[in-house]
Specification:
It is built from 2 helices and 7 strands. The longest helix is centred in the C-terminal third of the chain and has 26 residues. By secondary structure, the chain is α+β, with helices and mostly antiparallel strands.
Length: about 120
């Protein structure tokens, strides 16, 4: 299977909007990957069709530094809620996640309707 192109990638920016962190976010057309840690590495993958709600939160300090935090609620059993913390261009990223999540849900429903069962996946 061919790898999907990366739509967006960034690091968590905890101090003055600088990427001084070991947390990296990567968004493709089908999934969001969160990689964190230095000594103990953890990689999470959330399929976009599972993301149900996306909220952008920006404190005054985050607005001054040009970053924001995106809160996501999902139907993923291991990660029902998660934050994409202090990333640049957060409004655009929130819209990307929301738009591609909707596209993935629609495509999945079309496949389910075509095959008549969810067990196709």
């Amino acid at each position: 299977m061919q790898e999907k192109p990366i739509l967006w990638t960034d690091k968590k920016r905890p101090f003055l909007g600088l990427p001084l962190s070991f947390t990296r976010y990567t968004l493709t057309e089908e999934k969001l990957m969160i990689s964190s840690g230095f000594f103990n590495k953890k990689e999470e993958e959330i399929r976009l069709y599972r993301i149900e709600d996306v909220t952008l939160m920006r404190t005054l300090g985050e607005r001054i530094c040009g970053v924001g935090t995106i809160h996501c609620c999902s139907s993923d059993s291991t990660t029902p809620e998660f934050n994409i913390v202090k990333v640049k261009d957060s409004s655009r990223v929130k819209n990307l996640i929301s738009d591609y999540a909707e596209k993935e849900r629609t495509a999945r429903l079309e496949k389910i309707g075509r095959y008549g069962t969810e067990e196709v996946f």
